[in-house]
Design a protein that fits this description.
Phosphoenolpyruvate Carboxykinase, domain 1, 9-stranded mixed beta sheet, binds phosphoenolpyruvate, binds sodium ion, binds manganese (II) ion, pyruvate, kinase activity, cytoplasm, phosphoenolpyruvate carboxykinase (GTP) activity
Length: 587
Amino acid sequence: MPLTKNKAVLSWIDEMAAMTRPDRMEWIDGSEEQLEKLRAAACGTGELYRLSEEKLPGCYLHRTAVNDVARVEHRTFICCRRQEDAGPTNNWMAPQEMYAKLKKLYAGSMEGRTMYVIPYSMGIVGSPFAKYGIELTDSIYVVMNMVIMTRVGTEVLDALGDSGDFVRGLHSKAQLDEENRYICHFPEDNTIMSVNSGYGGNVLLGKKCFALRIASFLGRNEGWMAEHMLILGVENPKGEVRYIAAAFPSACGKTNLAMLIPPEIYAKKGYKAWCVGDDIAWLRVGPDGRLWAVNPENGFFGVAPGTNEKSNPNALASTRRNTIFTNVVHNLEDNTVWWEGLNKTPPEHALDWKGQPWDASLGTKGAHPNSRFTAPASGCPCLSHEFYNPQGVPISAIVFGGRRAKTAPLVYQSRSWRHGVFVGSVMASETTAAASGAVGVVRRDPMAMLPFCGYHMGDYWQHWLDMGEKIGQKPKIFNVNWFRTDDKGDFIWPGFGDNLRVIEWILARAFDEADAAGSPIGFLPKPGDINLEGLDLAPETMEELLRVDPALWRAEVDNIREFYGKFGDKLPRELAEELETLSKNLQ
Ligand code: PEP
Ligand code: NA
Ligand code: MN
């Protein structure tokens, strides 16, 4: 029985069902009773495996196909009428052409199966930030993940009423050959179509597909922003909480920063860190002129390997109940899970991520390097109370960052909003050639949105500049680099909890409470401005961390000029001017 009378919803579902031809249809109402039935069914077919109720209550294991373990950027498309609107950084196909191609792949793809109808909300249902979606899928694994990652159920349909304003998402496992895997976005139709994958980022359509690619497009049209950012609250000893939003490319420790543990010296003084979000922020100008942020998700889809009691105890604690593990090691000794970097004692009786008998003596990795946990946000010990606030939190500082061996200092502050947009637009990470310390290949990832911007990157930068005109009390914009190395290629900044020392300076600057020194690239902390109390770090090392090498930066300018060349006349004039200013400052 449909759970709504909404004509737009029902006629779209009819159309999708006529194409995919499921045997049955089931609406997900969000009740625990229904979910429990589905979990049992999935356990019956081997799609899910129930883990130890004693050690991991409510937790399940799932394995994807071995050729289906990560997001597939080369098979991800933005399908808008004009190719120019997708821009040079996205794959593009004309909507009619892509719809025709997909129609063939979806034809009868749900035969013999059930189509699950998942009404979900990104953001708290009824909040001014919330946006609604419906995902149709033939996978119980997807249903169970969406239930953790978003708000699912009847209340979403009640909030939607008879409005046609919802994001349409169709997912079918299909199981064709790899060339027929497609993750397609039709921003002009509020539609997402995913076929022939069962991996998280490709199939949990509320996440990257909706909350970033479609939402970035909506945000541009509606005057708000959808960003690939964590949201972190820092509580000082006076009990004031100040918030930052931060964007980093993959593998720069976003989840660790989002769940940071203050160093002992800070904890003793009464500092606390609160996680509002670890991956996505939706940002709006509030009635007070400040920039307000919410995390539109309801859970964490985190990388398992490397997560441990030291690197991220909060993330680990989040995964101890009601979590779905994907492609990790199954520990047969006590029916739990394991992954590389969890501890130094891999299980002796286990199955690897492919389901094959495994132990460490084989020398292969037991868990896939991109194995994941899907954990409810509510299980995170440092979750901010403001996570549940429909108004969101006010952002005082925006932080960009990347992985640079030598070029970027530990931290610097942009001179203005527009300069800050420039800093975000040229964000980059590089691969380091291990021992030699040689600088590797620079990959630019503007605002960490390269794979996630649903329209032309040049227009996106212009939108950032335009937002600056709308925000009354603008957050200050910073860049950090936790990854400076010495000549041997070893990291010289401790990172992890000690990053709070840098964030403290950032927040002090945001509230005009700290001094700074000018430099060709922006404001730097003065010697002694970063609190090193309780940390064994020589003053010379701090000098090195903050050093700006003009020769490296002149090479950086050349590299940015080449990168900017891709965007032609869509490159905002303001950003070209900022590049020239940087170039002049370095002379
Ligand atoms: C994903 O790959 O599904 C995903 C969420 O991506 P990332 O961890 O890179 O943000
Ligand atoms: Na990935
Ligand atoms: Mn991400």
